[in-house]
Amino acid sequence: MVIRIAELNSGIGGSTVYNDIEAPDDNVARPGDLLFAWSGSLTVARWHRPEAIINQHIFKVVPVDGRPQWLVEHALRDKLAEFRAVAADKATTMGHIQRRHLNEPVSIPGGAEARLIGPQLEALTDQVASFESENLVLAQTRDQFLPLLMSAKVTSRTSRTRSAGWSDAPESPNQSECQSRVSECQSRRR
């Protein structure tokens, strides 16, 4: 898959481009990576989907000098309004910023303050990642289960019976996979 601005803003859709070319590590996003769309909508996003190739209008943001990723993410989000103003001034078709704008200084908490708030922000970041993963599993389950309901291969009565205990109601294709995904999400919540 190729991550374009549309995938950052709206997720995978009918216009998503797929490609299996080998790309350098700088151009590959993996779950948890921080991405910055520097053209068009100017978006900061965490990537929670499987490994994918990054489009040329998106940077993978890699912290340096031992800075935690949450700190870099928040510093970048603080600069977004300024970046959007720069892009709006340049917009003829699609506004963008230049790499030099990313070299401008940003305000970040000092070492003691970062150490104090770091554990809480890391825990929140981990929780968001867990919720995003759960949302993806639930969306996949919905996408597999909904056609079965719409085609009457399974009914809402059957699905209620099955989800309550998966009794001996007739099994439909992919139903065990759907139940497995639901169980996986339920166990993550515990």
List the SSEs and their pairings:
Blueprint: E1 2-3, H1 5-10, E2 28-29, E3 34-37, E4 43-46, E5 52-54, E6 58-61, H2 69-90, H3 99-102, H4 111-150, H5 156-165, H6 175-189
Parallel strand pairs: 1-5
Antiparallel strand pairs: 2-5, 3-4, 3-6
Helix pairs in contact: 4-6
- Strand fraction: 5-15%
Q: For the record, give the distance between the C-alpha atoms at the N and C termini, rounded to a whole number.
A: 32 Å
Largest sheet: 3 strands, mixed
Number of distinct beta strands: 6
How much helix is in the residues? Answer: 40-55%
- Biggest β-sheet: strands ordered side by side in the sheet: 1-5-2
Question: What can you see in these coordinates?
Answer:
The chain has 190 residues and is mostly helical. Helix content is 51%, strand content 10%. The protein has 6 helices and 6 strands. The chain has helices spanning 5-10, 69-90, 99-102, 111-150, 156-165, 175-189; strands at 2-3, 28-29, 34-37, 43-46, 52-54, 58-61. The strands form 2 sheets. It has a 3-stranded mixed sheet with strand order 1-5-2. A hairpin with a 5-residue loop joins strand 3 and strand 4. The longest helix has 40 residues, at 111-150. The chain is globular, with a radius of gyration of 21 Å. It starts with a strand and ends with a helix. The relative contact order is 0.10. Mean pLDDT is 81; it is low at 166-170.
